[in-house]
Design a protein that fits this description.
With about 400 residues, the chain is an alpha+beta fold. It has 2 domains: about 70 residues, no CATH class; about 325 residues, 4-Layer Sandwich (Double-stranded beta-helix). Helices cover about 30% and strands about 25% of the residues. It has 11 helices and 20 strands. Strands 5, 6, 7, 8, 9, 10, 18 and 20 form an 8-stranded mixed sheet that branches. The radius of gyration is 26 Å and the shape is globular. About 30% of the residues are buried.
Amino acid sequence: MGEAECNPGFSTRAAPSCIIVRVGGYLGETRGKTVTLAALSDSAQAEYNATAIDLADRLAAARSAARAAGFIPKTEDQRFPRHNRVPLGVAREYARMGNRPLSPAVAALGATFGATFEHIGLTLGSVIHGVTLRDHDDAAFCGFLRQVLLERKVIFFRDQHLNEDEQVAFARRFGNLDAFPFATPGENPYIAQIIHDHNFPGTENSWHTDVTWMERPSLGSVAQCVQLPPYGGDTLFADSHAAFLGLPQDLVQRLEGVVGTNDYRLFLGNAEQVLGSALLSELKQKIPFGVQHPLFRTHPETGKTALFFNSAFLRHDSLASGATGEPLGAERSLSLVTELLQQHHRPEYICRFKWTEGALAFWDNRAVQHYAASDYYPHRRVLRRVTISGSRPYYAPEQAPAVPPLV
C-alpha cells in the first residue's frame, strides 16, 4: 500500500467524503485531497487476468476469422486513418529513395574522398566522417557533398573548427550568400551569431524553415557550434518531403495552389521602442514586409514536393488561392494552418543531432524543417550560421518523381 499526497497538510481523518476508484490493478480511495492506492487482492487480480486472457483469445480468433473471410484493409485510407498517415509518408519517401539511405553511386563517390557515413534518420540526416572541410575546395568534392545533401536533406561533420572566413568560404561553394539583418553579425558580415544565455534564452524551439519572409528564401544553411552548454541544445530536423507524402489526400486537394503571406514580425516585437520609428520605417521600406509563398513547394533540383512554411513567419489567417488571389478567409485559413502544424513534429519524420564544439550542419531549407531544443537554460550556447541564397518558391506537382509501389 502506498500514499500519494496532493496536499501533505490535509488530514485524511478530517476528510468529509470518500470515493473509491479503480486504476489498473489497484483500488484507489480518495479522501479529500489525499489518494491511497491499494493493490488488488490475489483472487481479484487472478479473476481480472483470467477475463483479460479469455477475451484476448476470443478477439484474436474473431479477427483471424474475419481476415480469412477477406475482411482486411484494402485501401490506403483503411490502413492509414487520417490521424496516423505518418507511416505511409515515411514508407513512400523511403521507397522513392530506393529503400536505402544513400544511392550506391554517391556512396562509391564518397569512398574516393575517404568519407564514411553514419545515417541517423531513415530518410534524412547523415554524419559524414573522414573528411576535413578546409582541405577540400575542389569542384568534385563539392559536387559530392551536394549530391549527399540532395539525397539526405541534412548532413553533418564533426571536429571541423572552421574560423568565420573558412565557414563563409565553405558555404559560398554552394551559391551566393544572404547576409542576415536580424542577428548580430560576426567579424565576417555573412556570419549570423545565434547566442543564447541567462538573459536571452533560446527562442528557435518551434518547427520552421529559414527566412521565409524573403522573396527568395534560403537554399540552405550552414551552422557551426562554437560554444556548447553543459547539457541539451540539440537540433532536430524533420523531412518535409515525407511530411507532404503523409498528408491526407483531401487536405492535399484543399491546399493545391494555396499561398500564404510571410513577414518578419517575429523580430519586431518591441521594435519601435528599441529601434525607433525612423529605423523601423526604413527597414520595412528596404526589406518587403509581407511576401507570398505556396504551402507546397517543388524542390528545384529533385522535383520532390515539400510541405513548406514557417509557423512564426506565416500569417495564419492569410491563406489565398495562388491562381486567383482570392482569400480563403480567416476562419478557414486558421483551420488549415492548425492541421498543417501537426505534421512535422511526428518522431517518424525526425532525426536529432547532438552538437559537439566544432561540429557543422548543412541543411536544405527546401527539404527540411528544424527545431532548436531550448533545454539548456540558463547556460550559454553559441552557433554561427551562414545562409546560402535560394530561388523563388513554386509548385509544379508534375515534376515530382513517382513513388514506387510499397511492397
